[in-house]
Amino acid sequence: MSDTDEQAVDLSAGLDNVQIEDTENDNNLGVKGIVLLLNNHWDESRELFEKHRSQSLVMHFGGAFVHVLQAIMALEEEKIAAAKVGMEDVEKKCRESLHQMKKQKKKSKGTQSDTAGQEDRWMCQIIIADSLLFQAVMTFMNQDIPSYMKGGWLLRKSWKIYEKVHKDISEHYDDSRKNGKVKVRADSTSIVDQVDKEEGANGEPKIGKVAEVPAAVGSAEGTAELMTKETLSRLLGAVSFGYGAFQLALSMLPDKVLKLIELIGFHSDKENGLKALEFSMHSKDMRAPLAVLTMLWYKVLLKPFYTETFQDEELKEVTDLIEQYQSEYPESAMFLFFKGRVCRLQKDLDGALAEYEKAKELCEGLIELRNGAMFEIGWCNLMKLNYDTSMEIFSTLLESSKWSKCFYTYMVALCQGSKGAVDIASNLMKTVPGLVKRKTNQIEAFVSRRAQQFKKIKLTDTLCELLILELIYMWNNLSQCSRKETDKMLAICGAVEEKKFFHVRSLIEGAIYRQHGDLEFSDQCFKEALARHEGLKYDYHIAAHALYERGNYRVQNGEKTEEGKKMLLKAKDGFKEYDFENRLNVRIRALLSTLDGQTKK
Predict the structure, then answer these.
(1) What average pLDDT score do residues 64-81 get?
(2) Pair (253, 325) in one structural domain
(3) Which among 7, 134, 257, 378 could bridge 393 via Cys, Cβ 3.0 to 4.6 Å?
(4) For 446-459, what is the mean pLDDT?
(5) Residue 530: which CATH number?
(6) 67 near 49, Cβ under 8 Å?
(7) How far apart are CA 75 and CA 137, in angstroms?
(8) 395 — pLDDT class (breaks 50, 70, 90)
């Protein structure tokens, strides 16, 4: 799909540039609310959406989305629960509206008094699908089996709606591109009603394939309305946001969730998702700037987190995208976050810190955004081995953030120990296990187990530094460090004397030598990590990652591809219930998928 020039919308950054006429419709009001949000005017954005929520489902949804975004950024259970209730209320209101449209249609059958047209019906269905998608995302954040089941069921319902509405609007839009306008009949049966009939409005997931979407549900008796290409383009932009985000999110889910989702009937198509998001980005729907954020989230945050390489052309594409939209949102802290991540991908940690400092200044009064900027500043300093600054940042977050006191205490302990205050670090380590809020939180479970090891092992400054390097590696961030920094890291590894951590040391050394281009010696380090882990009843994440690295080296080399695939599959399936399992499995699946694609070509 193209026609981007016709669809492009001026989402100007400054408040003075947001020109809305007295006759502005719901979508234009929604655009204004999103522009306010992206320019850090969160309160004004909330007030605008709240003011119009009772008269407009679009604005009701926009207001609920603001709370969802805040909740996800804060990672606080109370805010997530409240945001979920808000989205459930949006879904309920849209269902009530669809019911009223259905009643009105029956009363006006055969007349021209059916004022609720197909545009309104489609928009209601899109908002319901969006609300189900966001409910699923927040449900998955609980990271337990019941939540995966419930989240999968919500995704299934959401997908059925997206697929049907996207198909219908696409067909009409293609016709309108030829003629400028097209006749559209109001649906006699809503896809939402069909989904409820198949799934139950409050049921549990059913096992089996998703039923094929009907080719058409329009009624010959319904009143036909003329719909312009511009209207259909905006509607297609609206549904393409969720349709595309859904596909991208699905492609990055861990195996245990993905198997469940594939079991209940659908598969992801990443390329199709990217195309849909790109169309939404250039549409005039209020979701257009959200599609831009989602595209950047995938390309700058998610993809580098799970993959080893980031091509130069990809980096240029992302940089151009950020520059294009930052000119429209010069006050947006969110775009500064993305610029900071691009700097990290370029191994420019000083440049990244400069962007995050700017973002922090723009976030005054916005706790979630400010804490996010501070975390990035602390983490970049950690990658630079600046323990004093990192400790100061993580100590502040320990006091100000409600997210994981357990993790922040662990980070402060490591920084204290790394700069020589080992007694303070040891005392802090003792408190870490007692700060775990939920055992299903994988990060808290990991740092708790690490902290408990020091009941029997004496903590030293070198061990604290090694465990910082372990975190940098597990976050897939070693590739973002300069040669100067990785040389210092090698020196730290060489100073480790505690034999019970030699397997960790070997893994980190292997990863650093890989960064330096010494691939054969790197492979020997990973082999040593596996050998040193043999017989241990803990730290299976070290063995799994070492095996992954050995397999990755072989498939990338191209000479021992089959041997490498066997290693990757063993890393994926040979270890169970270890730390960071979900992350590694997604990386392995992405690598194997790439290899399969190359083989087919």
Answers:
(1) 87
(2) no
(3) 378
(4) 94
(5) 1.25.40
(6) no
(7) 12
(8) very high
Any domain includes 48: no
Q: Which residues on neighbouring strands pair with residue 43, listed in sequence order?
A: none
231 vs 184: CA distance, rounded Å? 12
Pairwise CA distance, residues 395 & 408, whole Å: 7
In whole angstroms, what is the distance from residue 443 CA to residue 415 CA?
18
Mean pLDDT of the chain, nearest integer: 84
Q: Are residues 337 and 269 in the same domain?
A: no
Closest CA to 413 of 390, 436, 434: 390
Collect all residues with Cβ–Cβ distance below 8 Å to 484 and sequence separation of at least 6. Answer: none
Question: Within this chain, do residues 288 and 335 fall inside the same structural domain, yes or no?
Answer: no
pTM, two decimals, is 0.85
Q: Is residue 551 very low, low, confident or very high in pLDDT (cuts 50, 70, 90)?
A: very high
The reply to whether 187 and 100 lie within a common domain is yes
Residue 267 pLDDT: 65
Instruction: Report the amino acid identity of residue 168.
Output: D
Torsion sign, CA atoms 288, 294, 298, 299 = positive
Q: Write out pLDDT tens, residues 496-532.
A: 999 999 999 999 999 999 999 999 999 999 999 999 9
**What is the number of domains present in the chain?**
3
Count other Cβ atoms within 10 Å, centred on residue 599.
8
SS3 content of the chain, % helix, strand, coil (to 5): 70, 0, 25
| Six-digit token string for 538 | 């803990």
Of 441 and 105, the structure prediction assigns the larger pLDDT to: 441
- For residue 490, being part of any structural domain is answered with no
User: What is the rounded distance in angstroms from the CA atom of residue 476 to the CA atom of residue 542?
Assistant: 14
Q: Chain centroid to CA 156: how far?
A: 19
Give the tokens for residue 451.
């902290």
Higher pLDDT, 174 or 186: 174
Cα separation, 318 vs 315, in Å, equals: 5
Same domain, 577 and 499: yes
User: Residue 184: helix, strand or coil by DSSP?
Assistant: strand
User: How far lies 408's CA from each of 70, 393, 413, in Å?
Assistant: 20, 10, 9
Q: At what angle do helices 118-140 and 145-179 cross, to 10 degrees?
A: 150
Q: What is the Cα–Cα distance from 150 to 588, expressed in whole angstroms?
A: 26
Is 209 contained in some domain?
Answer: yes
